[in-house]
Amino acid sequence: MKYEAVIGLEVHAELSTESKIFCSCSTKFGAPINTHTCPVCTGMPGALPVLNKQVVHYAAKMGLATGCTVNRLCKSDRKNYFYPDLPKAYQISQFDVPICENGEVFFYVDGVKKSCRLERIHFEEDAGKLLHDEIDGTVVDFNRCGVPLIEMVTRPDLRSSAEAKEFLEMIKTTLSYLDISDCKMEEGSIRCDINVSIRPEGSTELGTRVEMKNVNTFSGAVRAIDYEIARQIDVVEHGGTIQQETRRWDDVKLKNTVMRTKEDAQDYRYFPDPDLIAVEIDDAWMAQIESEIPELPISRYERYLNEYGMTAMEARQLSDSFAKASMLDEAANSGKVKPKAAANWILSDISKYLNDKQVELQDTKLTAGKLVDLIVLIDKGTISGAAGKKVLPALFETDETAEQIVERMGLKQVSDEGAILAIVQDVLAKNEKAVADFKAGKNVTGFLVGQCMKASRGQGNPQIINKLIAQELQKR
Amino acid sequence: MAITRQEMEHIAVLARLDIAGERFDRLADDMQNIVGMVDKLQQLDLGDITDVINTERKNALREDVVRQDYTPDELIAPNAPDFQAGGVAVPRVVE
């Protein structure tokens, strides 16, 4: 029998606020153990939480960017459970009235547009970290307690690991476009739980689902999903039934194991947190949030494909980076350069520089305006394409304009035919053998152009040199 | 609404409480009283108020500003039964 997988995700993303969600402690990653703590985030009796305004702002922003309805009025609830990384023995989260509901995320899988609905987005606090290598036992580091998270819960709309991966990539790209999360996977900024079930192909009923925890990378999610689909098919094919349970994914051993079964399913006893009052987003605040949403990655991707005639890979590489896409759009909107020319610079030399230096575009001094100037200099023939590449590092690193750098480095191309003709005639005079070879029918143009470029210290316009060499050779 | 013995046992497990014998019955009585009080509250006529959120007061929010007033030695050490390597030491936890 052919089976179809049904997949839903719960994605947690850490928000890039300066301070924690309910207290003023820093959220900075990697601080010495317990140095970012206070009575609130360590759950001391009597300490009272006060909600960070920015968390509400960021959560609503993600909601708008994913087509959700933002609930103008929402509240906080307590999710109760005991674990050493949770000092209050409850997590402040949102239960029946989350900040955002009913969204939809669009993405492409192998050129086909797909979508996955979002049931909800809510804000909540992260738990602490358990360290197992410090002592003979476990040490609790509360630094991460109270770091703000948004949890995005999907409907079971995904059908394969490839779809899940593209969905996750789109969530990540959207978070970075909105500038509300660091998206540092290695620091656990984005984590997900995965629900998988299978059903006979063509069926519309949902099968029993298994939840998988401990998935920390997108490639890990792909492996975990593929493993679980194969495991469930194997169980069913051998006459078994799928048990509703939670399994832990081990990305080293590449298998999952039972964590808890339905019988000992968690019972969190949610109730409204009496320490926190309602949150209301009024019209002015909402308008402010709306005004901060840029053109989203999928819209840019489609525009690059359809209007700029890029390949899917080019459009993807550009639209994946807010800084690169914005540079491209700004350059194109200047009307001075062809979008394709700007895109080529960004995808090749600019990307290579950023990669080599391990820096982000927005952290360099290169601007769209500087890139436009550079391309215009090449288009006008003031400098050669090769000289343009030499100008680029200084555009990244200094405040000089492209013209100033060209001037300083002496890269100005000589396009004056009289001056070039003199060089060509001189080179031909010094290379009688090449001229003789030409007369014997050999192709010597490349060699002669090289000699002329050398004689002009790289500044001669190669097109004009080419033309004049052909012209002069004909005369001999 | 009456609290069954089974519900009491479930809540005791969730709260990690060991409530055997006489104590169990006493707590069952207490809980029955609390539930009885809530039952009574629910008989109140609230007119057309159906909100699940109390909006009498709202938006107690703080600006996103960092302030660090405590060190682990001041805050964690005096409150931890066992303080080691800068944190609260607990029995080895592997879920």
Quick recap of the structure?
With 476 residues, chain A is of the alpha+beta class. Chain A has helices at residues 53-65, 161-178, 218-237, 283-291, 297-306, 312-319, 322-333, 339-357, 368-379, 385-397, 402-409, 417-430, 432-439, 445-455, 462-475, and strands spanning 3-14, 51-52, 69-70, 73-74, 77-80, 90-93, 100-109, 112-125, 129-131, 138-141, 148-154, 190-200, 210-215, 245-250, 255-261, 271-272, 279-280. Helices cover 40% and strands 21% of the residues of chain A.
Task: Summarize the structure in words.
The complex is a heterodimer of chains A (476) and B (95). By secondary structure, chain A is α+β, with helices and mostly antiparallel strands. Chain A has 3 domains: 3-288, no CATH class; 294-409, no CATH class; 417-475, Arc Repressor Mutant, subunit A (Orthogonal Bundle). Chain A has helices at 53-65, 161-178, 218-237, 283-291, 297-306, 312-319, 322-333, 339-357, 368-379, 385-397, 402-409, 417-430, 432-439, 445-455, 462-475, and strands at 3-14, 51-52, 69-70, 73-74, 77-80, 90-93, 100-109, 112-125, 129-131, 138-141, 148-154, 190-200, 210-215, 245-250, 255-261, 271-272, 279-280. In chain A, β14 and β15 form a beta hairpin. The mean pLDDT of chain A is 93. The model of chain B has no long low-confidence stretch (mean pLDDT 88). In chain B, a hairpin with a 2-residue loop joins β2 and β3. Chain B is mainly alpha-helical and 95 residues long. Chain B has a domain at 5-42. The radius of gyration of chain B is 22 Å and the shape is flat. Chain B has helices at 5-14, 21-42, 72-75, and strands spanning 61-62, 83-84, 87-90. The interface between A and B is large, with 52 and 38 residues.
